[in-house]
Amino acid sequence: MTSILSIQDVSRRCGLSEPTLRYYEEVGLIGPVEREGRSGHRRYHEQDVETLQMLACLRAMGVGIEDMRTYQANRARGHASAGEQRDLLLRHAQRIKAEIVTLGIHMDYLQQKAALWDARERGDDAAEARVQAHIHDLLPRLAPVAR
User: Fold this and answer.
1) Spatial CB neighbours of 77, under 8 Å, sequence gap ≥ 6
2) Which ranges carry the HTH merR-type domain (predicted)?
3) Domain region containing 29
4) pTM of the model
5) Residue 78 falls within a domain, yes or no?
């Protein structure tokens, strides 16, 4: 017997809000979702939940709607789209790798600023000067994380 789930149940299981679930149906990432006769309430099947969980993972990794749409179309095409699917995922992996590098620089900056204030608190002028030099070297490398 196949379990039928409400939008509330699916939202809890997938971690996507109800408006997001409706939007994903509207833009064709899922569905069309079956509706209950009289009330018109959405009724999801396990296969819908599996697809939505996969979409939630892609969303959490910063994959946009158009790439999700491409990913879904490639899944439907199967092995014929393997290369395109690989390239799409590797492109996002490269983006995340660049974000990690940038976040590492941000982390270094914050730690150095904390060390600066630590040196000031201790009255250690030599340590403060070393930290100031390190911060000065970091400044050109600071950049916002691109999304």
Assistant:
1) none
2) 1-74
3) 7-60
4) 0.78
5) no
- Residue 49, in any domain of the structure: yes
d(CA 136, CA 108): 12
Q: At what angle do helices 46-60 and 65-77 cross, to 10 degrees?
A: 130
Residue 144 phi, psi (nearest 5): -65, 150
Return the pLDDT at 142.
85
pLDDT digits (tens, 9 = 90+) for 118-146: 999 999 999 999 999 999 999 988 866 55
Q: Quick check: is 71 in a domain?
A: no
